[in-house]
């Protein structure tokens, strides 16, 4: 073997090994036209989750810190390691298009991005749900006749965006969460939410209990400082823009934002729209009050 060929083989082997490194693997073969920017706080999550089996985590970073890219970096890394081939992404319908764009940005071929809709389920079922990234809206999962078909697929990874909508008070979503997540503790699961704790400790802790089957105590006994400190950085990642600027990047990635409120006179068409909107909401409030038998002295002023 000539020296040149030996050196080429040696370098090729090094590059191959590096391609499996959590700091490198997710960032290979991204879009050339609009590649995503990667930050240290995102790399941190990929590196810390790389050795976990299964991955069960809630990413609760502030808005704008790239939770979507972070989750997809983890998904891409698991796919490269052959640990994930069927990936389900559950999002509000309004975000379906945005997630597809982000998948393309990180280098997932369009042929592997599969919309999961009422008109595609039967076709995908006949194909035994081939490998790929499936994007399903929360509206679809609310359909009782379809949820069992989706739950029974052997998903390797499930990503749920805006997971605060899956609370114990929203019974239908809560039931779906238990079927998808709690019923399969060996499954990789990532929750995403910019508002993981919305002032209700019962709701927040119950959501973490979906992720971690070992959190068996009642929520009241877990609602203490020690619990929040031990879960932070373990099954919850919550970083702020200030953390990124001062700790991770040590530079101003996110400049300070200033908001100014002003009062302006509405145009004639705008005023008409607001008037009709108020009338519509008023009519719905009246219907609801009568339907729920809520007519009382406290409610009557709202109906006039």
What would your notes on this structure say?
With 304 residues, the chain is of the alpha/beta class. The chain is globular and about 90 Å long. The protein has a seven-stranded parallel beta sheet.
Name the features:
alpha/beta, 7 strands, globular, 2 domains, Rossmann fold, 304 residues
Quick summary of this structure?
The protein has 304 residues and is of the alpha/beta class.
| Strand element count | 7
Supply the CATH architecture of the largest domain.
3-Layer(aba) Sandwich
> Helix segment count?
14
Question: H/E element string?
Answer: HHEHEHEHEHHEHEHHHEHHH
CATH fold label of the largest domain: Rossmann fold
Low-confidence runs: none
Sum up the overall morphology in one term: globular
Roughly what fraction of the amino acids lie in strands? 5-15%
Helix fraction?
Answer: 40-55%
- Quote the average pLDDT: 87
Largest sheet: 7 strands, parallel
Total count of domains: 2
- The CATH H-level homologous superfamily of the largest domain: Tandem AAA-ATPase domain
The spatial strand order of the largest sheet comes to 3-4-2-5-6-1-7
Secondary structure category? alpha/beta
From the alpha-carbon coordinates, what is the Rg to the nearest angstrom?
Answer: 24 Å
**CATH class of the largest domain, anyone?**
Alpha Beta
Distance between the termini: 92 Å
How do the helices and strands line up, and which of them pair or pack?
Blueprint: H1 3-18, H2 40-49, E1 56-59, H3 67-80, E2 86-91, H4 96-105, E3 113-116, H5 118-126, E4 132-137, H6 138-141, H7 144-151, E5 157-160, H8 171-182, E6 188-192, H9 201-211, H10 219-222, H11 225-231, E7 236-237, H12 241-248, H13 268-291, H14 300-303
Parallel strand pairs: 1-6, 1-7, 2-4, 2-5, 3-4, 5-6
């Amino acid at each position: 073997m000539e020296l040149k060929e030996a050196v080429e083989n040696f370098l090729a082997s090094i590059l191959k090994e590096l391609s499996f490194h959590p700091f490198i693997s997710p960032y290979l073969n991204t879009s050339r036209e609009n590649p995503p920017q990667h930050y240290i706080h995102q790399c941190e999550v990929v590196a810390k989750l790389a050795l976990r089996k299964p991955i069960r985590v809630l990413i609760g970073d502030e808005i704008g810190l790239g939770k979507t890219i972070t989750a997809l970096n983890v998904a891409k890394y698991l796919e490269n390691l052959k640990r994930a081939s069927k990936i389900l992404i559950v999002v509000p319908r309004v975000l379906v298009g945005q997630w597809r764009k982000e998948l393309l940005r990180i280098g997932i071929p369009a042929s592997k991005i599969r919309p999961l809709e009422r008109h595609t389920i039967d076709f995908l079922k006949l194909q035994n749900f081939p490998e790929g990234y499936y994007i399903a809206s929360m509206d679809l999962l609310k359909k009782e006749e379809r949820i069992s078909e989706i739950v029974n697929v052997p998903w390797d990874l499930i990503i749920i965006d805006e997971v605060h909508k899956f609370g114990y008070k929203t019974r239908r979503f809560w039931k779906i969460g238990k079927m998808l997540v709690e019923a399969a503790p060996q499954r990789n699961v990532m929750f995403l939410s910019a508002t993981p704790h919305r002032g209700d400790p019962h709701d927040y802790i119950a959501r973490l209990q979906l992720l971690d089957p070992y959190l068996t105590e009642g929520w009241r006994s877990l609602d203490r400082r020690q619990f929040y400190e031990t879960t932070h950085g373990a099954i919850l990642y919550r970083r702020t823009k200030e953390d990124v600027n001062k700790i991770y990047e040590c530079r101003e990635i996110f400049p300070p934002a200033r908001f100014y409120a002003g009062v302006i006179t509405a145009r004639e068409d705008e005023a008409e729209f607001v008037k009709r909107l108020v009338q519509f909401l008023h009519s719905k409030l009246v219907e609801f009050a009568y339907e729920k038998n809520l007519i009382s002295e406290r409610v009557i002023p709202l109906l006039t």
